[in-house]
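Section 3.1: Structural characterization of target chains.
Under the original work plan, the team committed to producing a structural model for every single-chain target entering the pipeline before any wet-lab resources were allocated. The record below documents one such target. The sequence was received from the expression subgroup and is listed exactly as submitted; it comprises 438 residues.
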Amino acid sequence: MNGLITFLEQKVSPIAAKICGQRHMLAVRKGIISTLPLTLVGSFFVIFLNFPIPAVAEKLTPFLPILDIPYRFTVGILALYATFGIASSLAQSYKLDQLTAGIIAVMSFIVTSIAPARLWAEVSTTNLTNNKLEIVAAGRYLNIANLGAQSLFGAIVTALISVEIYRFMKVKNITIKMPEGVPPEVANSFIALFPAGACLILFWVIRHMLGFDINATLSNLLMPLQGFLAGNSLLGGLVTVFLICFFWILGIHGPAIMGPVIRPFWESSIADNMEAFSNHVAATEMPNIFTEMFLQWFVWIGGAGATLALVCLFLTSKSAYLKELGKIGFLPGLFNINEPIIFGAPIVMNPTLTIPFILSPMVMTVIAYLATITHLVPMTVSRTVFTVPSPIGAMMVTNWHIMAGVLVVINFLVSLVIYYPFFKVFEKEQIASELAEG
C-alpha cells in the first residue's frame, strides 16, 4: 500500500495537477461554471411549468407560455452564454481584452448556428404573416434550439479557436495601432478589427460555403461518450464516481480536474431532462439518469466521498482530535462542504480511509441507480445549489418527490456502515499517536 501511495504521489499527482491547470481546460471549466446562476434560475421555472400540486398546476396553466420564457432564455441558450464565458476566461489567461474576446467568440458561434441558404431552400421554412405565406430568407432567422446544451461542444471549440486567432494576430502585430492618448476601450476595438474579421470569415466559410456544421458534427461524435458518462450507463456512472474520488485521494479537487471533460456532458444531460420535463414528460421517463444532480444529492452526501457519515462517526470518537474535527466539520458537512475533513483527517493520501472514501459512493451509486430504474425515485428534472442539505436538495430536483429524501437517508446509513470498520481502525491509530505524544 505504501508503495502504491508513493507511486501515486510522485508520478500520477504531478501529471493530474498539470492537466487540471492547463489553460484551455481551465477556461472551459470556468466558462461553463459561469453559467451556473442562469441554469439555477431556469430550474425554478421548470418546476413552475410542472408544479407538483395539481390544484396549483391547474391555476398556472394559462400562464405556461409566459412561464416558459425564463427557461428558454437561460437553460435554453446555455451554449451561447458558455461561449462568452470560455472565451473571456481564456483571454484573461493570455492577458487579452476579455470583453473583446467574448464578443468575437459569440459572433463566431452565432454564425455557425444559422443554417446555410441551400438548407433553407430544401426545408422551405415559412412564416405566416398577414395571412400570407412568407419565405424566411437565410440568415434572417435564428432557432434558439441551436444555442442550447446540445451545441455546447461546438461552443467550446468555437470559443477556443476564436481566442487563439485573436492572440495570434496580436502577437504577430496584425492589428491597427492607435496613437498614444486614445482611450483603452477605443484602442482595443481597433486592435480587434482584424481578428474579428478573420473569425467571421473563417466560420462563415466553414458553415455557409463548405456546409460543415461544427455543432452537429461534434454532438454526433461525442454522443456515445455522453451516453456512457452522463446517460443511463451504470458502468459510466461508476467510472465517473471512481475518478472524482481518486483525484481527491491525491489531494486534487476531483470535480475541478474532471470538470472540463465531464461537465459539458452533465450540462447537456440535465438540460435534456429539463427540456423533456417542461414538455410534461413524466419524471420517471427522463432521458438521462446520471446527471450532476443525481450524484450531488444521492451520492455526495456531505461532499465527495459521502463524508457526512465519517463526520458523524468522528463525533463519537474517543480520540480528542477526531472528536474536535467532527465538531468542526459537522455544520459544513450538512451543507456538503467537506474540505475540513478531507484535509483535516486527512483523507488525502490516507491508506486507511482511502478504501471507504471510494467504495462508499460507488455502492451508493448502485443503490440510487436501482431505485431510479425501478421507478421508486424519479430522475432529476431541475438543479439547485450544492449547499442545500441533501434530503431537501434531492426532493427539490425530483419535483419534490418524498422518496428522493428517503433514498438519501438510506444511502447515508449505508455509507455509515461502510465507513465504520475503517473509522475504528483509524481511530485506534489516532489514539495510539495521541498517547505517544502525550
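The mean pLDDT is 83.
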